[in-house]
Automatic annotation (TrEMBL):
PANTHER family: ALPHA-L-IDURONIDASE, BETA-XYLOSIDASE-LIKE PROTEIN-RELATED. The keyword Hydrolase applies. GO terms for biological process: carbohydrate metabolic process. It comes from the Bacteria. Keywords: Hydrolase. The lineage of its organism: Bacteria, Pseudomonadati, Pseudomonadota, Betaproteobacteria, Burkholderiales. This is Family 1 glycosylhydrolase.
Length: 431
């Protein structure tokens, strides 16, 4: 599944007074039809996309579907398969932030309502990058609640992951064959010296918390104590252990040049650049969870040479092929996002209006060199990959086949074979 995304990040900054709406900053509200044209121009049929949560979800049980009706109706007419991103780093003002204990149940209502309105949608990322959302909001103090504490982080994390789990259950109640692609940041922490090994080990255990809880995996003993010491109760922990949704899931791994970190003995961290790379980090996550994998985000800025992003695309694709050839069932690749972004050079913390040249297209919707390279990569590999080895089939129903699918009574749930552990190489499916 070759894909791109239209980012719907919407965290708040400045004590909740300023909303960072990337759909607005990147002019998607005005140029959405052009954006969908560009998706098709690239030869793509999968798109990470979702409605702007703060404009759509107006209160408990109260929604404004006008923009979603227009855009999702157009996607269906084009037969583009959306991977629906329902919560991307922010919640509506009336909820407050991720410290609100009512968030999980309320969000499940929103997810269920979306699924009922758009029953032809099958692929979802209910909450994007759960670990990063909790980290930036409640540990780094950058977004939303802007806290800097372990207790704040654990509170945000348990609410975010529970929201994701309850949303999956609500969506499955409408669409039993729904599949969930957990787009999550893949991280690694490198010790700078022997005295930093301890702090690095703690951080390398903490990076798995969101997916451990989401997939009902017992956390490491040190992390169990960490969670309980910082506000998670035994009952809350056992809620996560009791979930049985893993077989509906595909593990999405995001990788950027900032995902690896250098750690000092006092716990300070800094970006380390690309040390291990996507291949090694994804292998670590795959060995922990044994789920099919999708590369769900990457990008790098088009620099002064004009070919920096093109080279990064080539390297990421080489990493994907290496994983596939080593037997990891990797199902898709994503350059994120379709267009350039705004103010991600400061992680949306500052309102500078600075355009970051990270997209396949610039904000005038003119293709960048990396867009041309991605279009060629898709054309070159789409037909070759399925012929080279045994493929793990993803049972995706295209929008225009949904009525036929319902008529034949096939909506019986995700196949049990989706989460099997492969014993032979698998590859990406074309398209």
């Amino acid at each position: 599944m070759f894909a791109t995304g239209i980012e719907n990040s919407c965290p708040t900054i400045k004590g909740g007074r300023t909303r960072r709406d990337e759909m607005d900053a990147c002019r998607h509200y005005a140029r959405w039809k052009e954006d969908f044209d560009r998706v098709q121009e690239l030869g793509l049929w999968f798109l990470r996309y979702g409605p702007p949560i703060h404009r759509t979800w107006l209160g408990a049980g109260h929604y404004d579907w006008s923009f979603a009706d227009t855009t999702f109706g157009d996607l269906a007419a084009r037969d583009i398969v959306p991977i629906v991103d329902l919560c991307h780093f922010g919640v509506p003002d009336w909820i407050g932030d991720f410290q609100n204990p009512d968030l999980p149940a309320l969000f499940a209502g929103y997810a269920g309502a979306f699924a009922q309105r758009f029953p032809w949608v099958q692929l979802y990322t209910p909450v994007n990058e759960m670990f990063v959302c909790a980290l930036f909001s409640a540990s780094y103090g950058w977004w939303n609640e802007q806290l800097r504490s372990d207790r704040g982080f654990v509170t945000a994390l348990k609410h975010i992951v529970k929201a994701n789990v309850l949303a999956m259950r609500a969506i499955l109640g409408v669409r039993p064959d729904a599949l969930f692609i957990q787009s999550e940041s893949s991280e690694y922490f490198h010790a700078d010296n022997p005295r930093a090994i301890g702090p690095a080990e703690v951080l390398n255990a903490r990076r798995f918390l969101s997916l451990d809880l989401n997939y009902g995996r017992r956390v490491d003993s040190e992390m169990y104590e960490y969670l309980l010491d910082n506000g998670m109760t035994r009952e809350e922990y056992h809620f996560f252990l009791g979930q049985r949704l893993k077989h509906h899931c595909i593990m999405g791994n995001d990788y950027y040049v900032t995902n690896e970190h250098r750690v000092w003995e006092d716990g300070r961290t800094a970006a380390a650049g690309e040390v291990f790379g996507y291949d090694e980090l994804t292998r670590q996550y795959y060995e922990r969870y044994r789920l099919p994998v999708m590369h769900t985000e990457t990008n790098i800025a088009q620099g002064p040479g004009g070919d920096e992003a093109v080279y990064w695309l080539w390297k990421e694709w080489a990493n994907v092929l290496r994983l596939r050839n080593n037997g990891v069932p990797i199902l898709g690749f994503t350059w994120y996002s379709l267009t350039d972004q705004v103010d991600w050079d400061t992680a949306l913390r500052e309102l500078n209006g600075r355009v970051n040249a990270l997209g396949l297209y610039d904000l005038d919707r003119k293709i960048r060199p990396v867009g041309q390279a991605y279009r060629k990569l898709i054309a070159d590999w789409r037909e070759v990959l399925p012929t080279q080895s045994v493929c793990l089939q993803v049972p995706v129903v295209r929008p225009q086949r949904y009525a036929e699918f319902c008529a034949t009574g096939q909506r019986t749930g995700a196949p049990a074979g989706l989460a099997r552990t492969p014993t032979e190489p698998h590859n990406l499916q074309g398209g």
